[in-house]
Design goal:
Length: 579
Amino acid sequence: MRLKLLPLLLTVGLASLTAQAAVTDQMIADDAKTPGDVLSWGMGTQGQRYSPLKQINPKSIDKLVPAWSFSFGGEKQRGQESQPVIHNGKMFVTGSYSRIYALDATTGKKLWKYEHRLPDGIMPCCDVINRGAALYDNLVIFMTLDAQIVALDQNTGDVVWKEKIDNYADGYSASAAPLIANGLLLTGVSGGEFGVVGRVEARNPKTGQMVWSRPTVEGHMGYKWDDKGNKTENGISGTTNKTWPGDLWKTGGAATWLGGTYDAKTGLAYFGAGNPAPWNSHLRKGDNLFSCSTIAIDVKTGQIKWHYQNTPNDGWDFDGVNEFITYDQDGRRLGGKADRNGFFYVNDATTGQLVNAFPFVKKVTWATGIDLKTGRPNFVPENRPGDPTAGSDGKKGQSVFAAPSFLGGKNQMPMAYSPDTGLFYVPANEWGMEIWNEPITYKKGAAYLGAGFTIKTINDEYIGAMRAVDPKTGKIVWEAKNNAPLWGGVLTTGGNLVFWGTPEGYLQAADAKTGKIVWKFQTGSGVVAPPVTWEQNGEQFVAVVSGWGGAVPLWGGDVAKKVNYLEQGGSVWVFKLMK
């Protein structure tokens, strides 16, 4: 009798262990409060990148040393912008060229690797990067440069399901970390430089089946699907032709290429929409919704509840995809966003009402400020690139100097918020550009810019600056300058520390209140990824991916020449306190 029961008991036991290991909706909701793992891009769906861990602090940090390092290997040493996720003693980290690795989180031992087979015709605008994965149930889910979503078994790396987002030959790609919100898998698309149509999609994370789709260009229809896969209309985004002339809305860009955040208190997911297409703003008179906007979507219905446009009729490729991080202040649920256009915005997270807006970089030329009553920028008309049709030859519009450059006061590198200090920690850059418009017509799968540019330095002293920003007053409380542009994200902790990496290769930490740098370590290649921290077996760990690349060396003009000595790489570094 006992022998007959043994297989059954083993089966029940294994099922129990699997159930315990599965990532649940509640675990994801509690991610920011449970430092034993990192389940989301942003270290919590709100994206605050704050950990309450205090073991590593300004007094103990001089004992912080490498615990292990892992190389991605091969010749694919291009920009590494991934944030690791950690669960059940495993680290899941993506690499360039749509690769993903499972590693033992305490030793760095490789458990498995999945390398997505990419076609020759992929068209990523800004390097072959990937920003990370999402965890759900026993799956690890990530997106690929040929615009697919792949779900793998966390234990084996086997493909459980795979779905096509769109056609890569039309210019679509995907590189953001997916977001799990209220039991749904939320993803965006990349490809704004190719005249794609931006959108946010919700899927069943266990199967990949579509639930709803919400376009981020005005005039396009949203859809929803029932449990049997039947598709029905779910309302047009905005009003056709209200803010777009002619047929330009049909190839309007507004790609949601950075992914989103989610706040359970509001029930809203927040996605930023990128630049309108083409860059030549004289072709598309009007605000061009919902480009360059923060868009709040009800995750249950797929409907846009509110939007706020940071740069109406964008003529500088300022995008609007930067993360919207929710937080509490004076009894209100607010959200902060450091936009590429150089202004920091505070909006009511429930209604979208603009609460505050102020520059977080020293030089802004395209606008004199943001009108807090209307929410609109005070444009400087003469600092918009000129209309090519106004010139004698019709081939090039008047060139202007604009700041920030299109690479932004802040770009893809996510900032952090500390509820302890009430400050945002923003990786900012001071640079400008010469920019001019050119004639352009849309051709499917071809670059759709209608502009030329050269990135310029503004001063010789520095380009990057980590800045502690008070969202209430607009004051920069402290800053730590950096010679090269900052292109990696930020982590802040209950131990009164702020961690970030530099292109020169350093992971460094500063006192969160004063900005005094108290520790740094050379990783061997430029850091363009956000650090994370977690606790395991009573020890606090800090991890960061190292590997120089991304948009700066590809698009950076004079700045790229200034930092062309930097070496590429591909590795994960993990640190802990020396005993």
